[in-house]
Amino acid sequence: MATIQPPQINSLTTVPTRSRTSxxxxxxxxxxxxLVGAAFGIVLIKAEVVSWYRIQEMFRVQSFHMYGILxxxxxxxxxxxxxxRRVNAHALTGEQIAIPHKDLGRGHRxxxxxxxxxxxxxxxxxxxxxxFALVGSGAxxxxxxxAAALAGTWTYGYLRPRLPH
Length: 165
Known about the structure:
6 helices; 61% helix; globular
């Protein structure tokens, strides 16, 4: 009976240490992102951002709750981007973080897109951002909404080269 011997390493054989390191760093990044995402989902649920009632109140202009959250998120983003630009920030990979200027467009496509997005948000009672937080909290009925959002995103990606931009 033959025994299996480990491969012999001689001076001409190189051991691929880089792939092990990159695999570890990818796994570490995945775990980090999963933990941060779970924490963010918990914050969204505790702040009632994913509440169908809160979303309906917003669309009926009956409560300031959601407007306050959206406004504070925009203010936080504005301040964060300004800090990144002023301190000449770099990513962990050493690359400079560059946020290019975006020209705002005009035209009926923005109105149509905004109306479709808002109608879907109002009808389902779920913003696309926290859909996975809703599913994770046990509201499994939103699996259908998440699937529809993914299908719509895929459809747009497929049709984008043919659309007027």
